[in-house]
Amino acid sequence: MYNLLRKIGLTLYRPFMKEKMKTFIDKRLSQDFSDLKDEEYIWIHCSSVGEVNLSEDLVKKFYSISRKNILISTFTDTGYENAVKKYSDKKKIKVIYFPIDDKKKINEILNKIKLKLLVLVETELWPNLINEVNKKNSRIIVVNGRISDRSYPRYKKLKFLLKSMLQKIDYFYMQSEIDRERIISLGADEKKTENVGNLKFSISLEKYSDDEKDKYRKFLNIGDRKVFVAGSTRTGEDEIILDVFKKIKNYVLIIVPRHLDRLAKIEELIKENNLTYVKYSDLENNISTGKEDIILVDKMGVLRKLYSISDIAFVGGTLVNIGGHNLLEPLFYRKAVIFGKYTQNVVDIAKEILRRKIGFQVNDVEEFVEAIKNIESGKISDEEINSFFEENKMIALNIVKKENLIMNNIKDEAKDLWKHFFHSEKSNYNIYMYKLLDYPEYIMYDNDVMKAKKSKWNEYFGNSNPIAVEIGTGSGNFMYQLAERNPNKNFIGLELRFKRLVLATQKCQKRNIKNVAFLRKRGEELEDFLAENEISEMYINFPDPWEGTEKNRIIQERLFKTLDKIMKKDGMLYFKTDHDTYYSDVLELVKTLKNYEVVYHTSDLHNSEKAENNIKTDIISNIMNDEENYYILDFENDKGIARLEITTPHFAPYYYACFNILWLNDDEAYWWLDEENSTVTEILKNLEKSLTYFINS
């Protein structure tokens, strides 16, 4: 019946369609899907630009964790253009127009691919899409499910039609408990519904460095004036915004209308208020005096960048009864947000903002001006906004991890991941290899992903801070301490071993360290992911000396040739070793290099002037000698933090050493006598061997 009515409706309506609507439909029904592959796909359907934006974090995590092809469909032109722009550098992501629930076109897609999962963003319920996917026995989920106050009464009238369709959906990840209750009342299985929170909370938007923001201010030609951005304004709001603007000083007002067809009306309002303005397109053509009161934006896709440089940020659709647009975008750029009383589309977010006191709800011009004064006084702290995002960033990750485990049991997933790294099959798998998937915000292991970051690391970190690289980061003791001490720098750690990558990441995550990324990469592959003059520092701690095969050492002439390209002028290389020959060889090597010199070296670091600021590496974090053959060492491994006491005990022969081991995490002590080494000094020379012997004994 649905398809019959749909066909009749389109046929009867077509002669009366405007050309714009005919083009809209034809563009969606005439698509060529020949480039789709006979491979596994995840299909993510987003209605418009809003759903494309809020699902970005979800898409990226599906992309990095599942490693399957991603098919994104959008209904609107702006949604399509936005998605193409976001994912143009991702080879395994394809963007299409949604074929208006046409059964034939949907099956054309489904017959070309192996669909593992269909993701419907924000309750996009299309009967043909759901039915045909269900016939293929592919999993269907709804994410960020929402039933608004406005749509719920209409849905209830259609419950008899909706129920059978909802029963074909495998799981509903709803925004709130109210949304969960509503979808159950309409026919969804209660056991297949869950309140996970609003996916908008976990947004990941474009980050702009300080240099980029400075350049953007110059492009806007606003001088030293403060910036008041009124974003996504609707009819009836611009008048209020202009009244507010006239009551504040030393600001430039930037109006970004939700719909560009309102530009002429806004221009009239500006003239009626005796204010001057320049259009955004005029700025692109260098037509501006730099003294205009207002910049009127006649271009799509620039609002976020404007929010990033704003001093005052307003989100439209809230002073009139529209329901509100995305309140999170200004907050993402650490800007307190101002909005009106109409927040029915973003009610949960609005409540949370007000509860945390990181934004202001206003009803009139006077309250708006008062909110601006409060923001200017510095009452809103970045810490509270940071906390807001930190507590809600796991929504997308948790959904993806759960669905990934359903699509692939852990054994199959491990096999799949193993193929990513190695050629030969294995019967047993390193569990830490699979744990890499738990930390997509820290760990990169896919070569394509790492290569895509080349020349864009400052963009990745969201600032213009200097970048340092550590080759062989181990389990991360050195890295996390260095990053903690230097929040004004960014750090990239290279490590090959799965377990060490995971342990290093856990330490950074536990301490909420954000200026760190870990790459499963060799030191010999630096130019694969680093561009010219992209780093300022490099750290190499206790590398393998390769006795007998010194040509394999990391520090040799070819490393410096690489540094010539990737390191900035006056960059620094920091090197530690406990191998005397390696130490002296590096000193001699540097003497032969044209562009390098040794600015500091010592053969006794622990007793040098650098000792105070020295960061101990993974094995040894503290050594004390009381000059009576007594030593204390703290070290860390996957079992926890341990204290190792070494002494020649009074009750044992002189050629014995006594190890008193105390696991600090559980206060359980262990004793061990070493018979392999005759003196404590010899034990210390072979410390790593001795610790390994203990741990494995």
Topology, number of strands: 25
Please, what is the CATH homologous superfamily of the largest domain? Glycogen Phosphorylase B
Low-confidence stretches: 618-631, 637-641, 647-680, 693-697
CATH domain topology of the largest domain: Rossmann fold
Strand content: 15-25%
The major pleated sheet works out as: 7 strands, parallel
Give the helix/strand class. Answer: alpha/beta
Give the class-level CATH name of the largest domain. Answer: Alpha Beta
Count of DSSP-assigned helices: 31
Question: Main sheet: which strands, in order across?
Answer: 3-2-1-4-5-6-7
The overall average pLDDT, rounded, is: 83
Name the overall outline: globular
- Fraction of residues in H or I helices: 25-40%
Radius of gyration: 30 Å
Using the 3D structure, state the CATH architecture of the largest domain: 3-Layer(aba) Sandwich
What is the end-to-end distance? 73 Å
Domain count: 4
Can you walk through the features of this model?
By secondary structure, the chain is of the alpha/beta class. 39% of the residues lie in helices and 20% in strands. It folds into 4 domains: 29-145, Rossmann fold, CATH 3.40.50.11720; 210-391, Rossmann fold (3-Layer(aba) Sandwich), CATH 3.40.50; 439-613, Rossmann fold; 622-696, no CATH class. It starts with a helix and ends with a helix. Helix 6 packs parallel to helix 7. The protein has a 7-stranded parallel sheet with strand order 3-2-1-4-5-6-7, with helices on both faces. A 7-stranded parallel sheet has the order 10-11-9-8-12-13-14, with helices on both faces. The protein contains 31 helices and 25 strands.
